[in-house]
């Protein structure tokens, strides 16, 4: 049998309902909005998807395993902690972050004016250059819960490598 390759890919996905009166924090950046993702932590959907992509790349369990939503001490927590935990878990196994690429699916709020700041914030959390972070935004063209502005979802992929 051939040895395994010195790189791996992982994917992550997360979706939260959008509700009035919640802060909208994506990638660690507070986005002006009259609705925000509902959730147990700060509900940073983007960081949750990234953390699962990182963990998945190394064949580890999902973020619910490390941060169960039954743990009341995690209420309102900064999801940057979740991403840093994912990075430290894979780093401990000898992996480094190659790049992440993300798609934000949302009808509202408007994401594009905030992408540069979100990329900087995510790069800082991951300890990589801004050029190793891709973030795109799209809508669901008025279809389904996302298209009707009732939910916000993020898809993520992450490449890790032996470094
Ligand atoms: Mg989540």
Account of the protein in words:
The chain has helices at residues 45-57, 63-66, 80-92, 115-126, 144-147, and strands spanning 7-20, 24-26, 29-31, 35-37, 95-105, 133-138, 151-162. The protein is α+β, with helices and mostly antiparallel strands and 163 residues long. It has one domain (7-162): 60s Ribosomal Protein L30, Chain: A (2-Layer Sandwich), CATH 3.30.1330. The protein has a five-stranded mixed β-sheet. It has a two-stranded antiparallel sheet with strand order 2-3. Helix 1 (45-57) runs parallel beside helix 3. The model has no long low-confidence stretch (mean pLDDT 96). The structure holds magnesium ion. Magnesium ion (MG) is lined by residues 14, 16, 39, 45, 48.
Strand and helix layout:
Elements: E1 7-20, E2 24-26, E3 29-31, E4 35-37, H1 45-57, H2 63-66, H3 80-92, E5 95-105, H4 115-126, E6 133-138, H5 144-147, E7 151-162
Parallel strand pairs: 5-6
Antiparallel strand pairs: 1-4, 1-7, 2-3, 5-7
Helix pairs in contact: 1-3
The chain binds magnesium ion.
Magnesium ion (MG) is lined by residues 14, 16, 39, 45, 48.
**Structural class, judged by helices and strands?**
alpha+beta
CATH architecture: 2-Layer Sandwich
- Count of the separate structural domains: 1
How many strand elements?
Answer: 7
Biggest sheet, spatial arrangement of strands? 4-1-7-5-6
Summed over residues and divided by their number, the pLDDT gives a mean of 96
């Amino acid at each position: 049998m051939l040895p395994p390759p010195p790189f791996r890919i992982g994917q992550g996905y997360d979706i939260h309902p959008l509700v009035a009166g919640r802060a909208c924090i994506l990638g660690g950046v507070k986005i002006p909005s009259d609705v925000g993702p509902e959730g147990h932590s700060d509900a940073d959907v983007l960081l949750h998807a990234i953390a699962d992509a990182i963990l998945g790349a190394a064949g580890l369990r999902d973020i619910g395993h490390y941060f169960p939503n039954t743990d009341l001490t995690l209420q309102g927590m900064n999801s940057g902690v979740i991403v840093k935990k994912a990075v430290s878990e894979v780093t401990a196994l000898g992996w480094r972050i190659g790049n992440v690429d993300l798609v934000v699916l949302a009808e509202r709020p408007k994401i594009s004016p905030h992408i540069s700041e979100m990329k900087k914030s995510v790069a800082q959390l991951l300890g990589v250059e801004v050029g190793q972070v891709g973030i795109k935004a799209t809508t669901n063209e008025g279809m389904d819960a996302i298209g009707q502005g009732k939910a916000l979802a993020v898809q993520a992929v992450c490449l890790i490598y032996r470094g």
